[in-house]
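Q: What would this chain look like folded?
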Amino acid sequence: MALFLTEEQQMLADTARPFMADNAPVSHLRALRDGKDQTGFSRDLWKQFAEMGFIGILAAEGDGGLGLGHVEAGVVLEEMGRNLTPSPFLSTAVGAVTALNLGSAEQRGRWLPGIIAGETVAALAFEEGARHRPERVGLTATRSGNGFRLDGAKGFVVHGHVADFVIVSARTAGGPDDVDGVTLFAVPGGAKGLTAKAERLADSGVAARLEFDGVEVDGGAVIGALDQGAGALGRVLSAVRAGSAAEMLGVAAASAEMTLGYLKERKQFGQLIGSFQALQHRAAHLYSELEVARAAVLKAQQLLDAGEAEASRADAAASVAKGMVGLASVLSVQEGVQMHGGMGMTDAYDIGLFMKRQRVLAELFGDSDYHAERLARLSGY
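A: My prediction, written as structure tokens:
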């Protein structure tokens, strides 16, 4: 697989870039932040995403979507990263749609029309500890009549406080660390016994801690096979890891471009600081790291689009992408702040906002250290 966009994918990029720049620039994030918005995103903008066809990228044509792939979803996510666009796209259009594609026709018929129309928002509830460890599932789902009763808690659920439904990993058999015995559920956001405590993140986004106190769901909420949800959970995680890597790549690319622009304008000692060889070397190093990271992201997306035949390679490639972009992006934002000098630490410059968004995306679905260890274990170490 060639590591470049096809003509059609490039056309999508050429559409998404001006759309994000015009309708969801960094000033849009600032307006939400300064207005003390409690939702975490603009519902009007979410509807515009639907009108552009972005939300339905991963949904099958038979379900009303575009039937495209993760490369195309990544194109949109990268442009969101470039503009720090607050949106439930990653959790809903990538994570939830991937999960629903593994579910029943009834589940897709219930949730996908609203998602594609920009009326429905989904959240992913996979975390239970202070750090990313989705394989450890302690929230229980016990048999209750014709359905299940969910008890436990999930944390770091982005948009969990306003989600219309939540994809939840629950323990239906075995112990918290067992691979088998995990089941995925689609739980309505307004379910009785489900409470959300919203918390502001460093990047001005909002995540929630969800408490499940005897939440009752029927058998139709089960996504995939009972007790065999680890595989489905892995597929969803691979999708959102590659997706978050694409968004983080956009953050890093925009930060680097902003910094290069500053080097060409700022004068020190009567000279443009971009003429200083030490800064040129650092800029060249950053460019090289970003190009390698970009290739890793595209490779992971292509393997995800290859389907079941490449599922295991796609899983590892998603970890490679998330880990490599995590390292490259932190280099980009740190170099950006340093090369902007003291001004980079002020709110007057956008570079600090990029640093904060990178920090949140780096932690989301596992940081570079997590994925380095995961890849080592997958390789038998």
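The chain has a mean pLDDT of 93.
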